[in-house]
Design brief:
With 264 residues, this protein is α/β, with parallel strands linked by helices. It has a single domain, classed as P-loop containing nucleotide triphosphate hydrolases (Rossmann fold), CATH 3.40.50. 34% of the residues lie in helices and 15% in strands. The chain has 8 helices and 7 strands. The protein has a 7-stranded parallel beta sheet, sandwiched between helices. α3 links the parallel β2 and β3. The longest helix has 29 residues. Bound molecules: guanosine-5'-triphosphate and magnesium ion.
Length: 264
């Protein structure tokens, strides 16, 4: 989806990529090659993409209206596959579900493996499989989220946590009507990813830097990672965490409670 340059302000365009150096994306001036090679379908592709994103935004607005009417605050949690979203959510529910009414919308391409893991903590869990009628997409869009909302008692919730499909790019390109975007980042992914995959890092309000229990065994340079993150997103809150040991979970839960308190 990034090929046609959706920008953070929501605008989108295609153009001759020999005529600029990608400074607008904070990237290097090095020539990244010719990706204007769709002479027959280029314009049609842009039109289709604009239609898709505009329809998505309309449904995202409808979701947001429903959230506001129900008084539920919604956080969209994204990451690469396996960064630790479900593990962190288990810790989160164990810590918060007794005092805060939490709903989970679990997004996966296939299976109920994660949804099953989140059962039994006192939260209502709604599963959306993108392979079941949504083409097996690698992200949740607003329509998919809307389909999962029908199985959640929204007015009875304080907080709705969406576990998006594991993918470092696509989920950040679709608004689903959420109030905040969170990212779980595993230290096993390396320091350079904010520069290589800037779209999600730029979009999020908080980055949970997970699996810090593994730091003694890795070459991961936390300061370098933070500098790279700051280069694309100077504002994001960062939390060092381990869903294995529980480190940082309290700080993450406080951030979430701050969200819930901010209301819909
Ligand atoms: N050592 C360590 N392992 C972790 C930590 N958090 C998660 N894991 C492990 O990492 C693996 C993936 O964790 P998940 O919670 O399934 O990751 P996920 O982001 O939900 O994965 P997808 O839903 O497939 O995208 C599991 O084996 C977890 O036990 C952590 O903080 N430290
Ligand atoms: Mg998961």
């Amino acid at each position: 989806m990034g090929r046609f340059h959706p920008h953070s302000d929501g605008t989108m365009h295609d153009h001759d990529h020999h005529d600029h150096d990608h400074d607008d994306e904070g990237l290097t001036a090095r020539d990244v090659g010719d990706h204007s090679g769709y002479p027959e379908t280029g314009t049609a592709r842009v039109a289709v993409l604009e239609d898709i994103l505009s329809e998505n935004d309309q449904v995202a607005d409808a979701n947001q209206k429903d959230f506001a009417e129900a008084g539920v605050r919604v956080v969209n949690i994204m990451s690469s596959p396996g960064a630790g979203k479900t593990a962190l959510l288990k810790r989160t529910l164990a810590a918060l579900a007794a005092g805060t009414r939490i709903g989970i919308l679990e997004g996966d391409i296939a299976t109920s493996i994660d949804a099953d893991q989140l059962d039994g903590y006192g939260a209502v869990v709604s599963l959306v499989n993108t392979s079941a009628g949504f083409g097996g997409e690698c992200h949740l869009d607003a329509v998919m989220v809307r389909s999962g909302l029908s199985r959640l008692p929204l007015p009875e919730l304080d907080l709705l946590l969406i576990e998006n499909v594991g993918n470092l790019v696509c989920p950040a390109e679709f608004r689903v009507g959420e109030h905040a975007k969170a990212m779980v980042y595993s230290v096993t992914e390396g320091e350079e990813k904010p520069l290589k995959y800037p779209v999600m890092f730029r979009a999020v309000d908080v980055v949970v830097i997970n699996k810090v229990d593994l730091l003694p065994y890795l070459d991961f340079d936390l300061d370098k990672f933070l500098a790279n993150l700051r280069a694309v997103n100077p504002q994001a809150t960062t939390i060092r965490a381990s869903a294995r040991t529980g480190e940082g979970v309290e700080e993450w839960c406080s951030w979430l409670l701050g969200q819930a308190a901010a209301g819909a």
